[in-house]
Amino acid sequence: MARNGLVIGKFYPPHRGHKYLIDTAQGQVEHLVVLVCDDPRQSIPATLRAEWLREIHPGADVQVIPDTVADDDSPGWADYTRRWLGYSPDVVFTSEDYGVAYAHYLGCEHVSVDRERRHVPISGTAIRANPLAHWDYLEPCVRAYFAKRICVLGAESTGTTTMAQALAEHYQTVWVPEYGRDYWVERVLYASDHTWQTSEFVHIATRQCQMEDEAARQCNRLLMCDTDAFATSVWHERYLGQRSPEVEAVAATREYALTLLTDVDIPFVQDGTRDGEYIRHGMHRRFEERLAEAGRPYILLSGSHAARLEKATAAIDALLTAE
Q1: What percent of the chain has pLDDT over 70?
Q2: Whole-angstrom Cα distance, residue 269 to residue 80?
Q3: β partners of residue 175
Q4: Closest by Cα among 263, 72, 226 to 152
């Protein structure tokens, strides 16, 4: 078994072909370095691609190297690699034509792995063109990045949970429940002091985002979200009488492919934890105002559940077709 091995590439993004390459290399060397080439023009940061590779291959030494040499300059890359590592590896593993010349100038052995893409017939170019069409070639951490996130927002008792669940069932995927509701129920049941604090809303917004990111790893291309951190910021305004820069900063980190706003044209149901119907229309108007202020387009779902579901699925289908 060779001592030091090397795999180098863009991994833009990492896919199962890369996994096969790196797994093969790890099985043949004592120590494997994986160099991720960093070109600032690429839309997925190299640091994130490296983070994914460390998760997928915990035994590999994953490093980010600035992409400053022309792709076809094998002597240049060999010299650059040697200076970066401080040594020449014993063996280079590639699945590209450049591998033979690159290894020659490094003065090491070359192992070609699945050059014809027979074992794993995929490429980074194909995935970038349509990641949802090549979903099965992505690992969970990469899937979470490419998943289309659909957010369902609305005032109390307007059917957000019902819609998120129905959409998840329709598209055979998973949905993210509203953490704030569970938090509130526990608070009402067990807390003697019901005075809200901004720190609680920051916690709720942060945990909602964490739950969303966890579920995105398990979703089937689409992730249905029953509320989001943006909604938490609106509820902060409702309960504390002012907006929270801290909560809104958490919300600002999120992006959704589609936002669905549930209307207040269905009967209000009091389950013992809700504020009441008297604030529902005002909260709905505030959601509309805040969405407009944020420049966040949305689709209003009105009418019966069947009518709402039909409108929502039509919008999502159009989104998928555009992809």
Answers
A1: 94
A2: 67
A3: 224
A4: 226
The separation between CA 80 and the C-alpha centre of its own chain, rounded to angstroms, equals 33
Rounded (10°) CA dihedral 228, 234, 240, 241: 170
Q: Which tokens hold the place of 271?
A: 């389950």
Domains 2-137 and 147-322 share a fold: yes
Rounded Cα–Cα distance for residues 247 and 231 (Å): 10
Amino acid at residue number 229: A
Report the residue count for the chain: 323
pTM over 0.85? The answer is: yes
- Residue 270 is predicted with a pLDDT of 62
Residue ranges covered by each domain of the chain: 2-137, 147-322
Tell which CATH architecture fits domain 147-322: 3-Layer(aba) Sandwich (3.40)
Model pLDDT for residues 1-30, shown as the tens digit of each residue: 789 999 999 999 999 999 999 999 999 999
Q: Is 133 left (phi over 0), alpha (psi -120 to 50) or beta?
A: alpha
Query: Does 297 have pLDDT greater than 80?
Result: yes
DSSP string over 247-276: HHHHHTT---SEEEEE-S-S-----SSS--
Cis-peptide into 13, omega within 30 deg: yes
Residue 5: count other Cβ atoms within 10 Å of its Cβ: 28
- Which distant-in-sequence residues (6+ apart) come within 8 Å of 74 by Cβ? 98, 101, 102, 104, 105
- The pLDDT mean for the chain works out to 93
Q: What is the mean pLDDT of residues 81-89?
A: 97
> Domain 2-137 falls in which CATH fold?
Rossmann fold (3.40.50)
pLDDT band at 191 (very low <50, low <70, confident <90, very high): low
- Token pair in block for residue 20: 């096969």
CA within 13 Å, CB half, 41:
2
- Token pair listed for 273: 């934890």
